[in-house]
Amino acid sequence: MYALKHVNPYFPLREWKRDRALGVTDNQRRDELASLASQIGDMSQKDQTFWAGHLNRIMNNDPSPEMRRLAVLAAGRIHGSESLELVQRGLGDENVKVQMEACRALGRRSEPQAARMLASTVGTTTELDVKNSAIEALGNHKGAIPMDSLRIALQDQDPATTDLAIQSLRGVTGKDFGDSPQEWIAALDQMQPPAATPDPVDGDADRIRYAQEQRTLR
Prior knowledge:
Elements: H1 2-7, H2 10-22, H3 26-39, H4 45-61, H5 65-75, H6 81-91, H7 96-107, H8 112-124, H9 128-138, H10 144-153, H11 159-173, H12 181-191, H13 202-217
Helix pairs in contact: 3-5, 4-5, 4-6, 5-6, 5-7, 6-7, 7-9, 8-9, 8-10, 9-11, 10-11
């Protein structure tokens, strides 16, 4: 009977029609959400705000990791800080695939906060796939935050992780220092500007001036 059901398309088709009669199927929900994710970036701000509420409910209540992953994908294409919060929630999801999608979404964002979220993920996650997704996504950002995070990743024991870090550093810096993590670490250390001496506050300035006067008198 089991073989008959899989050979004869009548049986799965009949079961699918029965599911449709009872309501929207999981497959249909997935297709609709995937379609939304592909279009939402071109929608008006008003429509994006409307759908953001829908995505928020999916993140909070939907038991399907695939639906939550697609919700993160869609949220990452919405403009504004509120959608960034939805993507951040994906980083804390119990499912690894949802977390990885959140990393990819943050890699497509230009906000400095997105880079900070990725850097934090690289330093805290215990899931290697999530860590590598965050490292790869950091390659789309610029500045000290991704550079510092990727420099630390160069010291990882996993060759795949260090290779990803080097690849991302090429994107961050626009330079190529070879394939050796040690050469990259040395080059990055030379690129770092010297630490600036903080300007003294008013009280400190008075104390410094007094000390200089005392040395002159001596």
